[in-house]
Design goal:
The chain has three domains: about 50 residues, no CATH class; about 90 residues; about 170 residues, Orthogonal Bundle (hpI Integrase, Chain A), CATH 1.10.443. Helix content is about 50%, strand content about 5%. The protein has 16 helices and four strands. It has a two-stranded antiparallel sheet with strand order 1-2. A two-stranded antiparallel ribbon has the order 3-4. Strand 3 and strand 4 form a beta hairpin. Helix 13 crosses helix 15. The longest helix has 20 residues. The mean pLDDT is about 85.
């Protein structure tokens, strides 16, 4: 019985004596076949050569494979990775360098087996001198595994269940009314504007500094959060509206430095730090980021619901509840007093 094999390459050659001989190759450019064509032996040989080619070219999936699957190659990043905030991308890429240094060419198969969690826990704890860094590295590694699980490349995230090292919180770090008053009285205008926007909207520093005048319609501030992608429309309070209305609209960005140029992340951090530590202001113990928590608690004091605060700030309701319960309520006397006041008004 004649057996036809697809994919073989047939070549006819004229020999020196004038006769023609037919040669068969497993594929164009592949090895020459030795078995008689159209036989079972020929089919078996072809299958064996094809399988050998696949094995030779098959790439062993490693932890680097999973990382690149998440990030995409440098020349063509994964859109899901690019959707993350720029600071998050930078943090992940830094972590991935340390991960690949720790486990160079580690086969993915081994990450799914017993003992990998213990390896990751040991590596995580090796950074215990800097617990926040340790937890950020662990988060980046966990993100890679989670992303691969979502696309059914692997079945298990070995980072799951590893206890974080950083136990600190900023529950006692809220801006007081006195501190806010000092800043409003003494802070230079190019720093006061981003301060007021953060205090009035609860948005992140990066999103505030990146604001353009297209995001202000004279009444509302429009945001698309770089970290979550959420679109928000926030009514400006009277204080913030007065500041915005008096500014020139001839530049693209709303917040500008003292030279009338757009802020850079490092430039703002440096200028803000100098202002807070200056003799005129001298405010310690709170950061610009703490304005987000202050915004949440101020809204809670005003009896705003978790849903309302989430709608304005862009946090999920679970995040708002977590912030109020774990980070601020325990030490915020004003919130406790507000509860008692409402009880007195509604006996």
């Amino acid at each position: 019985m004649l057996i036809k094999i697809r994919g073989t390459h047939k070549v006819k050659r004229r020999l020196a004596d004038g006769s023609v001989r037919v040669y068969y190759y497993a594929w164009r450019g592949g090895p020459q076949m030795t078995a008689k064509p159209h036989t079972e032996a020929f089919a078996a040989e072809h299958a064996r050569l094809r399988e050998g080619e696949k094995a030779a070219n098959r790439k062993v999936d490693t932890i680097e494979t999973l990382i690149e699957y998440f990030t995409g190659p440098e020349r063509a990043r994964n859109p899901d990775f690019l959707a993350l905030a720029e600071t998050t991308q930078t943090a992940h890429l830094y972590a991935f360098k340390l991960i690949q240094k720790e486990w160079p060419s580690l086969p993915v198969k081994l990450t799914q087996g017993k003992g990998m969690k213990a390896e990751i826990r040991r590596w995580h704890r090796s950074f215990s001198a800097n617990p926040r860094k340790a937890d950020k590295l662990l988060f980046s590694l966990s993100k890679v595994f989670s992303y691969a699980i979502a696309d059914e490349l692997i079945d298990k995230n070995p980072c799951t269940g590893i206890t974080r090292l950083y136990e600190g919180s900023r529950k006692e770090f809220l801006w007081s009314a006195e501190q806010i008053a000092i800043v409003r009285e003494r802070l230079e205008s190019h720093l006061l504007l981003p301060f007021e926007i953060a205090l009035a909207t609860g948005q992140r520093q990066g999103d505030i500094l990146a604001m353009t005048w297209k995001q202000w319609d004279g009444k509302y501030l429009m945001f698309q959060q770089s970290k979550t992608g959420k679109k928000l429309k926030v009514l400006a309070n009277a204080c913030l509206k007065a500041l915005l209305d008096q500014l020139s609209k001839d530049k693209m960005r709303v917040c500008l430095n003292s030279r009338g140029r757009p802020w850079t992340k490092d430039g703002f951090k440096t200028s803000w730090g100098k202002a807070m530590s200056s003799e005129a202001i001298n405010i310690k113990g709170v950061t610009y980021h703490d304005l987000r928590g202050t915004f949440i608690c101020e809204r809670a004091r005003e009896s705003s619901s978790i849903e309302d605060i989430a709608r304005i700030s862009g946090h999920s309701m679970a995040e708002i509840k977590s912030v109020l319960e774990k980070h601020y309520l325990a030490t915020d006397q004003g919130l406790s007093d507000a509860v008692i006041d409402r009880m007195g008004k509604n006996p």
